[in-house]
Amino acid sequence: MSPEKRAEKDRYEAAVLAAVREADDWIAASHVRSRVGGNGEALRLAFKRLAERGAIVRIGDRSKTRYKIADRAP
After folding, report:
1. Longest dimension (CA), the chain
2. Among residues of the chain, what percentage have pLDDT more than 70?
3. 26 in the Ramachandran plot: left (φ > 0), alpha (ψ -120 to 50) or beta?
4. Contact criterion met (CB below 8 Å) for 44 and 65
5. Nearest to 36 by CA among 26, 51, 46
6. Helix H segments across the chain?
7. For residue range 33-50, what is the model confidence (pLDDT) as tens digits?
8. How many CB atoms lie within 10 A of CB 36?
9. What are the strands of the beta sheet with 27-28, ordered from one edge?
């Protein structure tokens, strides 16, 4: 991956994390996407990477999936 592409992904991931943090509660992917844009695949991958790093937690399945900053989760 080129440095430019990596930087773009990092910026997108940071925007997703900021949107989840600003929610201050569980938030649906659709609400995050309305704030940061991007396509569904990019958002799904950003959520996956953030969860793998322990930055966010996920509950639910499919349309009921919600995300929250890890240190604010119960």
Report:
1. 38
2. 96
3. beta
4. no
5. 46
6. 3-23, 29-36, 40-52
7. 999 999 999 999 999 999
8. 20
9. 27-28, 66-69, 56-59
Please report, for residues 4, 42, 56, 60, 63, the alpha-carbon distance to residue 70 in angstroms, rounded to integers and kept in the order given. 29, 21, 4, 15, 20
**The tokens of 35 are what?**
């704030």
Q: How far apart are CA 24 and CA 3, in angstroms?
A: 32
In the structure encoding, which two tokens stand for residue 50, read together? 């953030």
Buried b (16+ CB within 10 A) or exposed e, 12-28: bbebbbebbeebeebbe
Whole-number mean pLDDT of the chain?
94
